[in-house]
Amino acid sequence: MSNTTKIACQQFNISGAGEKIYAVSELSDVFSPPHHGPRNIPITVELVGEYNYVHFPIVRTGRYAIYLDTPDVFDGLIYSGTNQNTKTGTEISTEPIIEELKDCKQFAQGVVSERIIFTQNDPQPVAIRLKGKAGYTIRYIVSLLEE
Question: What is the 3-state secondary structure (H, E, C) of the chain?
Answer without folding.
Answer: CCHHHHHHHHHHCCCCCCEEEECECCHHHCCCHHHECCCCCCEEEECCCCEEEEEEEECCCECEEEEECCCCCEEEEEECCCCCCCCCCEEECEEECCHHHHHCCCCCEEEEECCECCCCCCCEEEEEEEECCCCCEEEEEEEECCC
